[in-house]
Each structure stands twice: as structure tokens, then as C-alpha cells.
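Slide 14.
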Amino acid sequence: MHRISIDEFKQSEKTPLVVVMDDVRSMYNVGSVFRTADAFRIERVVLCGITARPPHPEIHKTALGAEDSVDWTYVKDTHDAVRQLQDEGYCVMAIEQVVGSTLLQDFQPEPGQKYAVVMGNEVKGVKQTVVDMCDGCIEIPQFGTKHSLNVSTTAGIVMWDVFAKIKRLLER
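Slide 15: predicted structure.
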């Protein structure tokens, strides 16, 4: 399947996207986010608060080694992580259902801009104080009886969408 090695992955050009995980409880969700981040060569994952950190067997079970290929950091307080990313020039977007959010299909990355997306806790979502300090919010439209998706599913949809849009920008 012509897969690259971890060393080749580390040296490869990355999608200018950081995924921030705000108090994600499930280590399986954490592992799944790592695995998807590997698939789309996401720049890094920032784990915050109670979010578990590698190495851990439950993370590895779903990450299948992606926790070794994808760069990650731990920042205790999500507010500090958002501030740091903004100071580094990232546009930070919470993935949350709020008044005035941008629907994912309408989100258009700007050429040359780096982005970070904040994924929230499985029950409570992204903390309101974190939402308030972000540069905006992106919402995945939903049409069923439920009002939310699993955080790893949400992360996968958002990573794919932003990756595809950035790739199209770079091909122009």
C-alpha cells in the first residue's frame, strides 16, 4: 500500500491544522483522533485537562501506533492552549453548536492561514469560556433525532473537510 515510515511521516509536510482536545474522557476517542490525524498528516494534537496522554494501551488500541507518528503536546488548561496557538498565528475555531456558528460546508480556509480546532468533552462539549475566546465556531449540520456526534466522529469529519479544502487551495 506504499505507506510511509514514522520517520518519513515526521519529515513530511503537514496540513496546517492542530486538533485541541478539551477534557475528552475516552481514551478510545483520543486514540481514534490520533489515527485520523495520521491519515491526513495533521500538524499536531494538543491534549488538555483530563484528556489522557500516550503511552497507554487503551489509546494504542484505536491509534494503532499513530500516537508515535503524530506530534502531540499536553497543556493542562485549554484556555492556555488556545492563547498559545493564537499567539503562534493560528485561527482557533471551536467545534460547537452555537448561535452564529459557521456551518462546516460554508467554512473556507484562507490561503496561508494556520488553523486549530477545539474538540470538546463527550457530554459537555467545549467549555463556554473556551468557546468565548476562540476566533469563531464551526458546526456540523445534523438532520436526525440526536443533537451531537461522538467526538472522534466529529474530529474525523472536521479533519477530512479542512484537509480537503486546504489541499484544493494549495493546488491552485
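Speaker note: The CA atoms of residues 20 and 170 lie 24 Å apart.
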